[in-house]
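Appendix B, example 12.
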Amino acid sequence: MTQPTSTRPPRALVAEDEPLLRMALCADLLRAWPDLQIVHQATHGEDALRQALTLQPDLLFLDIRMPGMTGLEVADALQEDWPADVPMPLVSFVTAYADHALEAFQQGAVDYITKPWTPERLGQSLRQMKQRWSERCAWMATGGDDHAPQLAEPAWVGQLAAMLHGRAASAPATAPAATERWRHLPVAVGSKTFMVDLDEVHWFEAADKHLKIVTATQVYWARLSLKELQPHLDPDAFWNIHRSYIVAAKAVHSAERDEAGRMQLRLKDRNDLLPVSRAQQGRFKGY
């Protein structure tokens, strides 16, 4: 585990799909923060996620609209898969689209910079980042035996949220469409189609463009995504524990942590272990 200290310069990952903008951003970052070490320049979202998990940088500068995964999806995925014993990286979003600002701060971003940036605006953002980095270093110097320092939310974020809420409230009310709860799921096996009883399902798992359906004795496959499936499941009976897993509540035996501190659920009957994202771990404090 790489720990931040007051003497080690921070390590940063930059994700931007436009080559010229990526070069300009890296140059401006280094000009404003000479000690910064840029350990990787990602050209798309999947590259940013993969290299962030591999290199474990201290800071992330993410474009939002990139090929494949967006910067927001990268930040969300990192919260799912980041090692429990390593402090989450500090994140700033750099993008041409200001309409994602509120969602960016909900992902815990330090700042949100719109393109084209000015040296003054980038310098202001980096001062915030440096302050967070100093707080992180001080926290680690004390042993880091408590939760990492929380990011203070800028005052305008709450104002933006109130404005958006007010706009939604003033819009004509429309009744939400009822979502049908499924009791069975059709799956094709060879030339036959079987109806899988959802009461028998232990978990669902996203696997490329398919859905893996696991019961106590069988494994089935369907051409369906978790996102398409979830609205049709009873949320009290099926829990979304990770971006790639939905588990049947009655199939959970216990919650435990592995050697790296990552939470996992042990299931009944099959004795399998499923990962739990950081965001969902509070549900299992009583296990």
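DSSP finds seven helices and 15 strands in the chain. The CA atoms of residues 216 and 269 lie 6 Å apart.
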